[in-house]
Amino acid sequence: MKIELELKKMLDFIYACNVDSNHGNDLSNQTLMAENYLKRLKTIDKDGFDKIIRDIENKLKLIISRNTEKNPKDSKIPMDLVTDSLTDYVINKVKSKRLTDPKLIARYVYIELARNLYYDISYTLVPPEQKKIIVNTPIDVKNAKLFSYVVCSQWSELYAYILNYFGIETKIMQFDNQDHRWCETDLHNGEIIIADATDYIGNSIDLSNAKSISETTGFYILPQKYSGLKLSQVFSCYQTKDTIKIAKEIYEYRRDNEDLDISLGYIDSAGGYLVNKLLDSNELFHQRYRRFNDQKELLKFLEAARKYLYKLEIPNNMDGYEIFAYYYKFIKALPAQVRGNIVMQTVYADLFSYKQNILKRKYFKAPSDYIKYLEELVYDRYYEYLNKNENIAILEQIKKGLISSEKIGNLVLAEEIKIAELNRRLNPYYAINEVTFYHNSLDDTKDNYYMYYEPNIGKQLIKSEVDNIKFKNNNKIIVK
Questions:
Q1: What predicted TM-score, i.e. pTM, was given to this entire model?
Q2: What is the domain partition of the chain in residue ranges?
Q3: Residues ≥6 apart with Cβ < 8 Å to 97
Q4: Residue 288 clears pLDDT 90, i.e. is over it
């Protein structure tokens, strides 16, 4: 048998193992076959096939390892946000699902990381010199905590670390003189994966999409010719092509994600994402092209949409920034005249004033291990910033536990960048979603309604402009 055919047979076996392992098939046979293939690889002339043979060897070893480990594939992975390493948590989840196919591993890691991370919105609000600090501060990939706040650079480090751990060649990409970073995975079969969970693509960010079980926009399996490009450039390549061909190509690439998500159990059928099911199940979202000639009917429809959004359950762990992308999926499906009377934006709290007393009180009432966790997050992450602005002796004393919690608290509350880090966790979050429903534009006897969301207060409905102004003033809400 030709070497190429043998290698293809082995790759087919590896792919089948990913499917079979999720349906309870005989693992002992898989293990035996994997061991036999490994023995055969040792006798093959590797000339010209070094990379693919090394890749197959790694996957076969992983199959053997996963099939012989003690933990059953459906065992639940315990999670402790104070002590657990995020990367260990995701790596163990990959092992528990007994995945070996690089596409499935890459997709699973992409989704699970996004579910357990938040975007550091302070990056968009601070001065340029602080932006540089945030984006250029590396994250400790082995000790990063669950629900950490990251920007593109830290997310890329975490994603690349986990995939490379499984022998899947992944590198961090960045253009000269630009801060943005993303990941590219070489599948060694003429395809690459471009992964970018922190970029806002089409009014959507995958840190939100993963939490709401929606289609992602930042993960694509693409031909090798797109290597070195970020997704916005890939999409721009289509602009010179025939429109029908463009639509077909993009559809096929998105179908790859659906196939992977079905295999991984995120959805049960093509298009079976939770958001799609919610949209399909309500008549409000089947009338996008409806025209209203009667203002009363339009107002009635607007109020029905408002009630739906207010009652809509928020996916677990979604913050005040990510929910914008979630709500947008529903708002964009409404008739144009209805959408025209809804305005949504992310607003922010003045971090030096917004419930600062509550923040400090919560800080000192928190368990000691959580205090230690927060100190590590703040001081390790912004070590460079602190090193430039404070006496190094203070940092060393903090590390050694020689400074009282009161003084540490005062230091933390002294600078905006650290208050933001604590405020999002203890208050907890400073990004707040605001949706305005303009009833008054349709009936001048009606007040506009204002709906706010952040995890600390949940949803809050304000039914008049006067009360809304009071709410914003009392809480120092600002609009950027």
A1: 0.72
A2: 3-68, 99-264, 282-351+429-478, 356-424
A3: 21, 22, 73, 108, 264
A4: yes
Q: Taking the CB of residue 275, how many other CB atoms lie within 10 A of it?
A: 17
Tell me the CB-side half-sphere exposure of residue 330, using CA atoms within 13 A.
30
**Cis before 428 (ω within 30):** yes
d(CA 374, CA 419): 11
Lookup: tokens for 269: 């059928």
Kindly report which listed range (56-65, 86-95, 287-296, 390-399) carries the lowest average pLDDT score.
390-399
Mean pLDDT of the chain: 79
Q: pLDDT tens digits for 254-267?
A: 789 999 999 999 99
- Dump strand ranges (E) for 100-225: 117-119, 148-150, 170-174, 181-186, 191-195, 219-223
DSSP 312-363: SPPPTT--TTTHHHHHHHHHTTS-HHHHTTEEEEEEEE-TTTTTHHHHHHHH
For 411-457, how does the pLDDT look when each residue is reduced to its tens digit (9 = 90+)? 554 544 444 444 444 433 468 899 999 999 999 999 999 999 877 66
Q: Check: CB of residue 90 under 8 Å from CB of residue 84.
A: no
SS3 track for 358-427: HHHHHHHHCCHHHHHHHHHHHHHHCHHHHHHHCCHHHHHHHHCCCCCHHHHHHHHCCCHHHHHHHHHHHC
Vertex 316 angle, CA 258 and 303, to 5°: 90
